[in-house]
Write a structure and sequence with these properties.
- The longest helix is centred in the last third of the chain and has 21 residues.
- The protein is globular.
- The protein has one domain: Rossmann fold (3-Layer(aba) Sandwich), CATH 3.40.50.360.
- 34% of the residues are buried.
- The chain has 6 helices and 6 strands.
């Protein structure tokens, strides 16, 4: 099972639209991914008491990561980093089990020229600390307003091919750690 994590809670985000596109890419490879949309996090997930006791409403989000054989994280770039809600969500996941020895693939999307390179590099450090198996083939979408249609579908065939190649290779990477996948 693959989980695709939309790394922002911004309504109508380009990141979420790209996640939907990536889900179709995985579906074309006969994999139906689970999507985790941080915009759907329950309000009680942000109460100070969550550090001591996680609300039951957070369980589906946590389970989607904990039961995944591989996780694809799609992150936008906000002020030179990944969104605070993504860090918070990662902080709410069980440590170290959430990412320990779990294959993780990264995609960056940004309006700027570097395609969220900084947030992806920051996530790599965090995921290394958490013991994830990091898939080395990252995809960066720069100038997303020009590179993606309003629906989130890449305009250029080359970018579509890069996403297809990344998904196919990531599934092979996941199978190295989960042969039954």
């Amino acid at each position: 099972m693959i989980t695709i994590l939309s790394g922002t809670n911004r309504p109508g985000s380009t990141t979420r639209k790209l996640v939907d596109y990536l889900a179709t890419v995985y579906q074309s490879l006969d994999v139906t991914p689970t999507i985790v949309d941080l915009q759907e996090l329950p309000a009680e997930a942000f109460l100070p008491s969550v550090y001591e006791k996680k609300p039951e409403s957070l369980k589906p989000f946590t389970d989607a990561i904990m039961h995944a054989q591989g996780v694809v994280i799609v992150t936008p770039e906000y002020n030179g980093g990944f969104p605070g809600v993504l860090k918070y969500f990662i902080d709410m996941l069980p440590h170290p089990a959430a990412f320990q020895k779990r294959p993780v693939c990264l995609v960056g999307v940004a309006a700027g020229e570097w395609g969220a390179l900084r947030p992806v590099e920051q996530l790599q450090g965090l995921l290394s600390y958490r013991g994830a198996y990091q898939f080395p083939d990252r995809v960066f979408v720069r100038n997303c307003g020009a590179q993606l249609a309003a629906s989130g579908i890449p305009v250029a065939e080359d970018l579509q091919k890069r996403f297809s190649a990344q998904a196919e290779a990531f599934l092979a990477f996941v199978k190295r750690f989960h042969p039954a996948a």
